[in-house]
């Protein structure tokens, strides 16, 4: 999984869609600064943390650092999307200059740097003296051949330009920035990477093959000049100040070049160095460049190929290219392109230059036959590679077919990781059912009778409850009052009137009560003196009249009062869902 950090803050992480860059691509190349380009949306949480030439940009694959550098340029397009370009840490050497100084054995310094390795270290020390800690290098591994230097002068050249011209171009090797325990090391090594055990095979993981035949560097005669600018080879070469290769002259004609040898001051030594150099000048360079798929992207158990690795390339059809175990026949990974968004597009470029071996043949005709034979072999390799590319494409088609069976268009992919399935399944995917639950289709229910039908609310909406017309019935019933006594007691003077019916008829031991005190009756006024009480007893039962019938009919609806909606969320757990659309 790829991640991108800016000063420790996340710029790209496929597990979070808010922290994703657009089109992030890393391009690495031997003895180049390297590049990292990407686009960033204005809504990105860390869009404002990128500071040109200052921020530290890092690209990781899991825990492995693939790129480290700084933001160089940015631009904003019509959609306000930022386009950012970054350069690798070797570009720090562009920020310093080499003050006027003379190195070598002719220098007047007491502790002089008089070989290429010591001078290289001195150049880096001068760079560090001008830079802050964030752009300094610690000298790491240096295993190039040590060569004595008579004189080498600097005159305010940019450090990178001076090293590129006077070291990388003369002393074969590769500059490599390496991080260990928080220290930035600068190595100068013959072999940049490891010897890979992954094999690039025709018909398996080879995508393309190109052949380049270059003759512009051929020289058939050279004029060697010593380090002091005066010494030549005339005294050691029969009076001639030049040497030539007759076979190459017969094939290509006379092509001269003056060659300086700063370390040679003796004519015989100068002649020997010139003869060795001439051998490399007459060789016709046939370069084969391969483009292949890193099988580590398919099978994590296969070691990943990295920049500078030596990789065997095998053709079983004709035995061309690498011999297993012979590292001299392996191919060097000179370029590595990484697509963080679509790792399937990662591309590695391997190259190897085959010499025409003119120094090992007896005559022009034999040389021509070898060159033509090699060209024929390379053409065969090209044809084989084309067939291999077709095979690889067929494998891709078959793999896509398997994926299409497992995840056809319309499939729903569920995961707790927010990674677009297109990055590992291919195809086109969109996020699905965000903020919604999933219900199976049921043609018998109107709400669920079609696929991808959406509805429902997470809150209970405002509404009214209805009540049908109805009757309350009250059955006939009797109220009974039990026997009881009423006691009247009062204080103070008051009157009571007693009426007697003269016509009353005795009925047993009682008289009928008087009905009218005003007619046919005599009344007596009681004495009012003193506090006293009167008691009246009653007995018997009292029955209320019968009540029958029904209460009136009640009709109408109830209403709801108050504002807002009631919560209706069921227990839930969230996941990422993606739907394949193509």
From TrEMBL:
Residues 511-536 have a biased composition (Polar residues). InterPro entries: Gp10_C, Phage_tail_spike_N, Tail_dom. Residues 404-581 form the Baseplate structural protein Gp10 C-terminal domain. It comes from the Bacteria. Residues 135-362 form the Tail spike domain. Residues 511-566 are annotated as: Disordered. It holds the Pfam family Prophage_tail. Residues 546-566 have a biased composition (Gly residues). Coiled coil: none annotated. This is Phage minor structural protein, N-terminal domain protein. It comes from Anaerostipes caccae (strain DSM 14662 / CCUG 47493 / JCM 13470 / NCIMB 13811 / L1-92).
């Amino acid at each position: 999984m790829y991640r991108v950090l800016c000063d420790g803050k996340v710029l790209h992480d496929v597990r979070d869609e808010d922290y994703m860059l657009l089109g992030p691509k890393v391009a690495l190349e031997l003895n180049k600064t390297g590049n990292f380009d990407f686009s960033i949306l204005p809504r990105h949480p860390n869009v404002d943390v990128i500071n040109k030439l200052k921020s530290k940009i890092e690209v990781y694959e899991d825990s492995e650092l693939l790129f480290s550098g700084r933001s160089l340029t940015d631009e904003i397009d019509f959609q306000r999307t930022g386009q950012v370009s970054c350069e690798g840490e070797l570009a720090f050497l562009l920020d310093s200059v080499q003050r006027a100084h003379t190195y070598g054995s002719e220098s007047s310094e007491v502790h002089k740097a008089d070989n290429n390795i010591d001078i290289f270290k001195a150049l880096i020390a001068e760079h560090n003296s001008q830079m802050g800690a964030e752009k300094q290098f610690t000298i790491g591994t240096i295993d190039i051949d040590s060569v004595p230097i008579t004189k080498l002068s600097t005159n305010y050249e940019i450090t990178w330009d001076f090293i590129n011209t006077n070291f990388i171009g003369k002393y074969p090797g590769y500059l490599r920035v390496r991080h260990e325990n928080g220290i930035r090391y600068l190595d100068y090594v013959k072999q940049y990477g490891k010897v890979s055990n992954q094999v690039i095979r025709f018909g398996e993981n080879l995508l393309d093959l190109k052949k380049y035949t270059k003759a512009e560097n051929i020289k058939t005669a050279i004029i060697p000049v010593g380090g002091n600018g005066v010494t030549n080879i005339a005294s050691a070469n029969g009076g001639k100040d030049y040497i030539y290769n007759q076979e190459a002259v017969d094939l290509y004609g006379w092509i001269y070049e003056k060659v300086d040898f700063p370390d040679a001051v003796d004519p015989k030594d100068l002649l020997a160095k010139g003869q060795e150099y001439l051998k490399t000048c007459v060789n016709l360079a046939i370069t084969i460049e391969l483009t292949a798929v890193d099988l580590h992207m398919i099978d994590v158990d296969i070691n990943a190929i990295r920049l500078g690795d030596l990789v065997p390339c095998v053709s079983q059809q004709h035995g061309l290219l690498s011999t297993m175990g012979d590292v001299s026949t392996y191919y060097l990974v000179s370029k590595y392109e990484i697509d963080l968004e679509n790792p399937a597009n990662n591309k590695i470029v391997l190259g190897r230059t085959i010499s025409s071996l003119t120094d090992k043949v007896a005559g022009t005709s034999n040389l021509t036959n070898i060159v033509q034979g090699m060209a024929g072999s390379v053409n065969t390799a090209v044809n084989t590679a084309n067939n291999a590319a077709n095979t690889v494409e067929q494998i891709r088609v078959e793999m896509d077919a398997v994926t299409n069976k497992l995840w056809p268009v319309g499939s729903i992919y569920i995961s707790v990781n927010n990674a677009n399935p297109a990055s590992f399944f291919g195809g086109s995917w969109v996020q699905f059912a965000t903020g919604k639950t999933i219900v199976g289709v049921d043609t018998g229910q109107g709400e669920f009778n079609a696929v991808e039908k959406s509805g429902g609310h997470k809150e209970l909406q405002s509404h009214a409850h209805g009540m049908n017309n109805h009757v309350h019935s009250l059955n006939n019933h009797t109220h009974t009052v039990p026997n009881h006594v009423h006691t009247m007691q009062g204080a103070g003077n008051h009157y009571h009137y007693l009426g007697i019916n003269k016509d009353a008829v005795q009925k047993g031991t009682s008289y009928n009560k008087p009905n009218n005190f005003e007619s046919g009756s005599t009344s007596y006024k009681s004495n009012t003196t003193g506090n006293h009480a009167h008691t009246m007893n009653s007995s018997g039962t009292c029955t209320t009249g019968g009540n029958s019938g029904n209460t009136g009919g009640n009709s109408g609806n109830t209403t709801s009062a108050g504002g807002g909606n009631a919560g209706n969320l069921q227990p839930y757990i969230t996941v990422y869902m993606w739907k394949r659309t193509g």
